[in-house]
Amino acid sequence: xxxxxxxxxxxxxxxxxxxxxxxxxxxxxxxxxxxxxxxxxxxxxxxxxxxxxxxxxxxxxxxxxxxxxxxxxxxxxxxxxxxxxxxxxxxxxxxxxxxxxxxxxxxxxxxxxxxxxxxxxxxxxxxxxxxxxxxxxxxxxxxxxxxxxxxxxxxxxxxxxxxxxxxxxxxxxxxxxxxxxxxxxxxxxxxxxxxxxxxxxxxxxxxxxxxxxxxxxxxxxxxxxxxxxxxxxxxxxxxxxxxxxxxxxxxxxx
Length: 254
Known about the structure:
alpha/beta, 10 helices, globular
């Protein structure tokens, strides 16, 4: 299997040695190099990284890489064998290797991270509390105009309490091509609306956040063979702080 998994990075960091991983400097346009290939060559949107985050790397990979399977991980976040109690060095050993991916992809078209469960609020409510109330209605209208067959999917996903996050995946390249055609069509058209309205209230990384919700919208109802895998974070997560921020947004925002 020809598998390429880009590792989105904006700074120098530790990277797995397995050849399946392709560390990529995302948002490299106009920035000082730290030794990695950048997303600013060929056809690219590298200069828009401030608002698109890791999506500038995905766009570059879509337009410039040739492979059978394409994927994305982050410099500190990888698919792997979960172990909550492992120290950072032990966690590195749990990251999936080529063999792990080949085993999963023998029976699947797509690998996605295990869904995040918001428990006390829906996907729509969580986005609105965390990122504001303007984006989703506008994107929903665009999907209704451009992809009316996905309107029901949008409503269904927004009413759920679970979601695949982080724009992480590994999928057959022809599936990725189809998905990115949809994703960037919607995002670019919404960006045109934002430009027309002015960017004075621009939300940092807004298009990256929106895209995390659109993957499940696009997948809903399709018959691809999907398998979920755990995600390993190489940095310690302060769950008490994150939980407090979540509750603050939920009950005290606005």
